[in-house]
């Protein structure tokens, strides 16, 4: 791998920056806040005993409000026998600069009624939530040999509410850019304004041989 200062458009820099995107979605994402990578400004890499470490300055864009935020971050891909998902630290100028508390509370109260069933694609906040929840998969699966993009939500079904958490089953498509594979995942996501988004029961389904790579986020 290349070390020292990296070309911001190079695969190594973009891959590490995407990991930061996924990390921030897992920490701060909601039906009204879902970020994607906008630009890598600066990037550098070094290799040590603990693995490959990337230092980045990037801009992210909220898909919903179009607001942009500038962040500095480090990404460590563990080396040797350590393995595991990348380790991320990040600091942004205005984490969640758009206050969505009122919208989140209203949405939660509307659907926190033990109603359940298919969610129509027109109910965009819950389809946005699928994109956020997909970041849990992409963060877990990311390595120095992968580059994941969210492709699309195929289906979402609301389950019965448990422990004051809205629960959803999602089928999502992820685009692994290196292999050009479209990978189908099923996951259970939970959400409430107080607890944020969580993803569990993540299961990779058989390969989608007939799928074509759609425009990715």
Overview of this protein structure:
- This protein has 217 residues and is an alpha+beta fold.
- 22% of the residues lie in helices and 44% in strands.
- The strands form two sheets. Strands 1-2-3-4-5 form a five-stranded antiparallel beta sheet. Strands 6-7-8-9-10 form a five-stranded antiparallel beta sheet.
- Helix 1 packs across helix 3.
- It is globular, with a radius of gyration of 17 Å.
Key features of this structure:
five-stranded antiparallel beta sheet, globular, alpha+beta, 217 residues
Number of helices: 3
Proportion of β residues? 35-45%
N-to-C SSE string, H for helix and E for strand:
EHEEEEHEHEEEE
Cross-sheet strand order for the largest sheet:
1-2-3-4-5
Secondary structure elements and their pairing?
Layout: E1 4-5, H1 11-28, E2 35-48, E3 51-62, E4 68-78, E5 87-92, H2 101-111, E6 117-118, H3 124-141, E7 148-162, E8 165-176, E9 181-192, E10 196-204
Antiparallel strand pairs: 1-2, 2-3, 3-4, 4-5, 6-7, 7-8, 8-9, 9-10
């Amino acid at each position: 791998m290349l070390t020292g200062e990296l070309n911001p458009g190079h695969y190594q820099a973009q891959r590490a920056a995407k990991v930061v995107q996924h990390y921030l979605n897992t920490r701060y994402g909601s039906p009204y806040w879902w970020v994607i990578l906008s630009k890598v400004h600066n990037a550098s890499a070094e290799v040590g005993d603990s693995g490959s470490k990337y230092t980045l300055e990037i801009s992210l864009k909220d898909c919903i409000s179009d607001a942009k935020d500038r962040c500095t971050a480090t990404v460590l891909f563990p080396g040797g026998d350590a393995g595991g998902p990348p380790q991320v630290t990040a600091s942004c100028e205005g984490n969640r600069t758009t206050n969505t508390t009122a919208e989140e509370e209203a949405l939660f109260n509307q659907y926190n009624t033990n109603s359940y069933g298919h969610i129509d694609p027109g109910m965009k906040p819950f389809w946005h939530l699928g994109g956020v929840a997909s970041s849990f998969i992409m963060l877990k699966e990311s390595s120095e040999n992968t580059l994941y993009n969210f492709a699309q939500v195929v289906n979402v079904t609301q389950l019965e509410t448990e422990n004051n958490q809205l629960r959803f089953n999602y089928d999502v498509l992820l685009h692994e850019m290196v292999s050009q594979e479209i990978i189908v995942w099923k996951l259970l996501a939970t959400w409430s304004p107080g607890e944020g988004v969580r993803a569990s029961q993540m299961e990779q389904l058989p390969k989608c041989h007939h799928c074509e790579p759609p425009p990715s986020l």
